[in-house]
Write a structure and sequence with these properties.
Blueprint (H helix, E strand, L loop, with lengths): L1 H4 E4 L3 H10 L1 E6 L5 H12 L3 E9 L2 E7 L2 E7 L2 E8 L12
Antiparallel strand pairs: 1-2, 2-6, 3-6, 4-5
Length: 98
Protein backbone atom coordinates (compact mmCIF):
# COMPACT_ATOMS: atom_id res chain seq x y z
CA UNK A 1 0.00 0.00 0.00
CA UNK A 2 2.78 2.44 0.89
CA UNK A 3 4.44 1.90 -2.49
CA UNK A 4 1.31 3.02 -4.35
CA UNK A 5 0.93 6.26 -2.37
CA UNK A 6 4.53 7.46 -2.07
CA UNK A 7 6.22 7.96 -5.43
CA UNK A 8 9.58 9.44 -4.40
CA UNK A 9 11.16 11.93 -2.01
CA UNK A 10 12.05 15.39 -3.32
CA UNK A 11 15.78 16.07 -3.08
CA UNK A 12 16.56 19.77 -3.54
CA UNK A 13 18.26 22.56 -1.62
CA UNK A 14 14.96 23.85 -0.28
CA UNK A 15 13.80 20.42 0.91
CA UNK A 16 17.20 19.76 2.54
CA UNK A 17 16.95 23.05 4.48
CA UNK A 18 13.44 22.12 5.65
CA UNK A 19 14.61 18.71 6.86
CA UNK A 20 17.63 20.11 8.72
CA UNK A 21 15.91 23.07 10.38
CA UNK A 22 12.25 22.19 10.81
CA UNK A 23 12.01 18.36 10.65
CA UNK A 24 9.93 18.55 7.46
CA UNK A 25 10.37 16.21 4.49
CA UNK A 26 8.96 16.57 0.97
CA UNK A 27 7.57 13.74 -1.17
CA UNK A 28 5.87 13.40 -4.53
CA UNK A 29 2.72 11.38 -3.90
CA UNK A 30 -0.19 9.88 -5.80
CA UNK A 31 -2.73 12.57 -6.77
CA UNK A 32 -5.63 10.49 -5.44
CA UNK A 33 -4.09 10.04 -1.96
CA UNK A 34 -5.41 12.12 0.95
CA UNK A 35 -3.51 13.42 3.99
CA UNK A 36 -4.49 10.52 6.25
CA UNK A 37 -3.33 7.89 3.74
CA UNK A 38 -0.06 9.75 3.14
CA UNK A 39 0.65 9.98 6.89
CA UNK A 40 -0.05 6.26 7.40
CA UNK A 41 2.17 5.33 4.43
CA UNK A 42 5.08 7.36 5.84
CA UNK A 43 4.64 5.81 9.29
CA UNK A 44 4.55 2.29 7.79
CA UNK A 45 7.52 2.68 5.50
CA UNK A 46 9.89 4.67 7.73
CA UNK A 47 8.71 3.75 11.28
CA UNK A 48 8.35 7.35 12.46
CA UNK A 49 5.57 9.41 14.05
CA UNK A 50 3.98 11.95 11.70
CA UNK A 51 2.83 15.18 13.34
CA UNK A 52 1.18 16.81 10.30
CA UNK A 53 0.84 16.51 6.53
CA UNK A 54 0.48 19.46 4.14
CA UNK A 55 -0.34 18.79 0.49
CA UNK A 56 -0.32 20.88 -2.65
CA UNK A 57 -0.87 20.22 -6.34
CA UNK A 58 1.90 21.70 -8.44
CA UNK A 59 0.65 22.83 -11.89
CA UNK A 60 2.21 21.72 -15.15
CA UNK A 61 4.94 23.97 -16.57
CA UNK A 62 5.59 24.83 -20.20
CA UNK A 63 9.04 24.15 -21.58
CA UNK A 64 10.61 25.36 -24.84
CA UNK A 65 13.88 24.13 -26.37
CA UNK A 66 15.80 25.45 -29.33
CA UNK A 67 17.26 22.68 -31.47
CA UNK A 68 18.80 22.31 -34.93
CA UNK A 69 15.46 21.36 -36.40
CA UNK A 70 13.60 24.26 -34.78
CA UNK A 71 11.78 25.11 -31.61
CA UNK A 72 10.29 22.23 -29.61
CA UNK A 73 7.49 22.98 -27.17
CA UNK A 74 6.32 20.71 -24.40
CA UNK A 75 5.45 20.63 -20.72
CA UNK A 76 6.31 19.01 -17.41
CA UNK A 77 3.37 17.13 -15.94
CA UNK A 78 1.59 18.35 -12.83
CA UNK A 79 2.09 16.42 -9.58
CA UNK A 80 0.99 16.35 -5.97
CA UNK A 81 3.56 17.28 -3.32
CA UNK A 82 3.30 16.44 0.38
CA UNK A 83 5.33 18.09 3.14
CA UNK A 84 5.53 15.85 6.20
CA UNK A 85 6.28 17.27 9.66
CA UNK A 86 7.64 14.68 12.09
CA UNK A 87 7.23 14.58 15.86
CA UNK A 88 9.93 16.15 18.02
CA UNK A 89 13.15 14.11 18.00
CA UNK A 90 12.20 11.97 14.97
CA UNK A 91 14.29 11.82 11.80
CA UNK A 92 13.98 10.18 8.37
CA UNK A 93 16.88 8.38 6.74
CA UNK A 94 16.02 8.82 3.05
CA UNK A 95 19.38 7.60 1.79
CA UNK A 96 19.50 4.41 3.89
CA UNK A 97 17.65 2.38 1.23
CA UNK A 98 20.07 3.20 -1.59
Amino acid sequence: MAKEILIRPIVSEKSENLSENMQQYSFIVNKAANKIEIGKAIEEQYSVTVKSVNTMIMPKKSRTRNTKSGILKGHLASFKKAIITLAEGEELDLYGEL
